[in-house]
Amino acid sequence: MKIPLKYTFRNLQSRRLTTALTILGVTLVVFVFAAVLMMANGVEKTLVATGSEENILISRKASNGEISSIIDGETVNIILAMNQVARTPAGTPFATKDVATVINLPKTDYVGITNVTVRGVSPDAFALRPMVKIVEGRTFQWGAREIIIGNSIARRILGAHVGGTIKIGGDQWAIVGRFDAEGCGFDSEIWGDVLQLTDALGRSNAFSTLTLKLRSLQEFDSFKEAFKSDARLQQFVPKTERQFFEEQSETMALFIRVLGIFITVIFSAGAVIGAMITMYGAVANRTVEIGTLRALGFHRRSVLSAYLIESLMIALIGGIVGLMLASFLQFFSISTINFDSFAEIEFSFALSTGIVISSLLFAIVMGFVGGFLPAFRAARLNIVSALRAS
């Protein structure tokens, strides 16, 4: 014979204070758990959105990112002469030779300096990355020491505004425009003329990466094979731009997840103990009631199920509340150092279906672990001893 579910609901209301405190504990743990996953997911989404599946990015094979990658001008010319590379209406290769470096700039909150990525680009960069749009001022003039800044730079860097100047390579560069890159990694960068920047940085005829468009993506396999067969290109590797930036997020996202889950596991021990205390208290206060249920013919497994369901419901309520609170983090943006580029990148917390499911399952596991032993004890109570309890 099964114990009605309304019996469990009634029990939740009979011990409101301890039940509320246990729900609060689970809420806090699930909030931290979900926030960590949302942070890692936000980093991945920001960097993945930086690249395009249709663009091909070539970097040095042994490099960890754009900053440590170097492609000499002779190699760039060999790649751009390949048959698979698309051409503009003017007949030139549809590509941008980028040089990326990191400079230190003061933050707007006056708490120190931060690393900022400065990217030199070629004229085709704007066509290859259409998400970059000027929202204030104008774009820089080719051949001039002018730069444009991303939205995130304008918010985070002291003095970074249209009409201001930033010191790069010993010279003052005029900020002539601000651009929006739809929240991707380019929003945390400063852009200028690649030739002016390579000259200022003393990297004449050497670039960080080469990004280009192929005549057809179906030619990507033959394009990669050419790099393997040509001895002059074997030190370089072509990837889709999205794959490149996705790999850039792996180290940092993994670090955030591991650190966050470690902290969450410690917190969850407290929540499990809280659930266990609540359920042990429920069993102790209802010993006679449990004996009565057993005397009326309810099986041990029914008693175990009733108390276990009560624990799971407490955990599930806490999980839902914690998840709801964590969802508000989507309205906030934070910044951190990308381990691969050593530059600061701004990103938003990002909630996903997988995070919702993982958070609720985590709450249920806490409820099961915290409630099983008290429920087992309730099911094992002797009927006569339970009825004699005061």
What does this structure look like?
The chain is an alpha+beta fold and 390 residues long. 50% of the residues lie in helices and 21% in strands. The protein contains twelve helices and 14 strands. It has helices at residues 5-14, 16-50, 73-80, 125-128, 151-156, 194-200, 220-229, 241-285, 287-295, 300-327, 353-380, 383-388; strands spanning 55-60, 71-72, 95-106, 113-121, 133-137, 146-150, 165-168, 171-180, 189-193, 206-207, 209-213, 236-240, 333-337, 344-348. Strands 1, 3, 4, 5, 6, 7, 8, 9, 11 and 12 form a ten-stranded mixed sheet that branches. Strands 2-10 form a two-stranded antiparallel sheet. Strand 7 and strand 8 form a beta hairpin. Helix 2 (16-50) runs antiparallel to helix 8 (241-285) and helix 10 runs antiparallel to helix 11 (353-380). The protein is elongated. It starts with a helix and ends with a helix. The model has no long low-confidence stretch (mean pLDDT 85).
Tell me about the biggest sheet? 10 strands, mixed
Structural class: alpha+beta
Estimated radius of gyration: 30 Å
Helix content: 40-55%
Overall morphology: elongated
* Element pattern in H and E: HHEEHEEHEEHEEEHEEHEHHHEEHH
Number of helices: 12
Detail the poorly predicted runs.
Answer: none
For the residues shown, what is the average pLDDT? Answer: 85
Give short descriptive properties of this protein.
390 residues, alpha+beta, 21% strand, elongated
Task: Please describe the topology of this protein.
Blueprint: H1 5-14, H2 16-50, E1 55-60, E2 71-72, H3 73-80, E3 95-106, E4 113-121, H4 125-128, E5 133-137, E6 146-150, H5 151-156, E7 165-168, E8 171-180, E9 189-193, H6 194-200, E10 206-207, E11 209-213, H7 220-229, E12 236-240, H8 241-285, H9 287-295, H10 300-327, E13 333-337, E14 344-348, H11 353-380, H12 383-388
Parallel strand pairs: 4-9, 6-8
Antiparallel strand pairs: 1-11, 1-12, 2-10, 3-4, 3-11, 5-8, 6-9, 7-8, 13-14
Helix pairs in contact: 1-10, 2-8, 2-10, 2-11, 8-10, 8-11, 10-11
